[in-house]
Amino acid sequence: xxxxxxxxxxxxxxxxxxxxxxxxxxxxxxxxxxxxxxxxxxxxxxxxxxxxxxxxxxxxxxxxxxxxxxxxxxxxxxxxxxxxxxxxxxxxxxxxxxxxxxxxxxxxxxxxxxxxxxxxxxxxxxxxxxxxxxxxxxxxxxxxxxxxxxxxxxxxxxxxxxxxxxxxxxxxxxxxxxxxxxxxxxxxxxxxxxxxxxxxxxxxxxxxxxxxxxxxxxxxxxxxxxxxxxxxxxxxxxxxxxxxxxxxxxxxxxxxxxxxxxxxxxxxxxxxxxxxxxxxxxxxxxxxxxxxxxxxxxxxxxxxxxxxxxxxxxxxxxxxxxxxxxxxxxxxxxxxxxxxxxxxxxxxxxxxxxxxxxxxxxxxxxxxxxxxxxxxxxxxxxxxxxxxxxxxxxxxxxxxxxxxxxxxxxxxxxxxxxxxxxxxxxxxxxxxxxxxxxxxxxxxxxxxxxxxxxxxxxxxxxxxxxxxxxxxxxxxxxxxxxxxxxxxxxxxxxxxxxxxxxxxxxxxxxxxxxxxxxxxxxxxxxxxxxxxxxxxxxxxxxxxxxxxxxxxx
Length: 553
Prior knowledge:
Shape: globular
């Protein structure tokens, strides 16, 4: 049955993706330009022979922003590699299909390990993968979109360590690492529910055994080794450097009425599906086990966290402000409520369906979910028909990227606009104290001898060069951000520099024509972290092979 169900999941994946891809266009909204610029930088660096990307030399208005250091991007490499064989628009939709099918597959096998029921796992995978909120994330919010792929495996790992087979601690280590490589904030969100589950374990079991504590600590320790390349840059380049990050604030909450009524509409967005809303309203009638009551409670609590009735104002000045948008909890509400929906609906169906009817039922469910998803995506398709193409703008424009349509022929227009959300993330706080400073960076403005110069950058991978002519010896303030491991050379010779009032590279020049090159050289600790991480993944793989062989005996 596994192959049948995976085949049906692939069918729904391809159908929904082809429906979007047939538009031959992309709607550039929300975080799209931020992530598209990062993928473009990776692709161009790969094209020039550089595997690693540290700073934005070609995108982000050539400011040298280090979002690559502090925002994981490993799962964007498939998208970048697809650019070598497909057009920009088709490359995105091919990557979209890969992530969708990966989500469906991981969801299916995670639920299968938890429930031991194939039909329930199939229903869970369908409803979770093609949930309206996840479909919304797949349009532009790619960090969270990727993290959602691994949440079922993550909570399976938590379950195994706390209640199930504690020898499967590796599930928690692996899934935690995968979430971290996708979206750091999702690690923080997941930890909140992990702590709640740990407390529930202590209460319901009147404590926890030493063996389970050891498994929990082992999974956490191994996870740290697996994600060292993500962690290390924060210690080597962020802490104590006066850098900014995404603005911490709770900027939007929903009302229960909005969540309830919106969930019965067809389109994707900040909502649950009508199936999960019905689960909220009816699940209490058929829940019998304590385990399912816990899942139901977590689902309701996740929904509560999205609303304004949760006292979010009390979180001011705390790490909880990093959540920013409370709609993020919809991913967790979808996860927990879909478990109940899948278990309940599959139990009812299996009582009345056997043999060939079960095959027909499975195919019918796949078709239904495909049609439901197409209905959710139809508004996006309609938007693509009516929105205007993104027009051209100057290379150093300070105009924010508009919500417009991208096609293959105008795909590159987006990179000349100011990135709408995240253009100044991970820059020195001193560079953000005024709009004038921010715009001077976007407009490639340098300061020399009391004059403002607009320079044209010469670009290589992780490297930005400027030709600067000075009538006398003087300091030049370049429109490139200075980080702890930034390197500067003048006329091919390594040169000292300081950080200016904009948080940029300031370097002393001699009289005459000078070529100033700003680059980034990662700390040796970073490369060591990669080696340790790779060895840890290999060691874990060897352990799993031996564990499976021993388990099979």
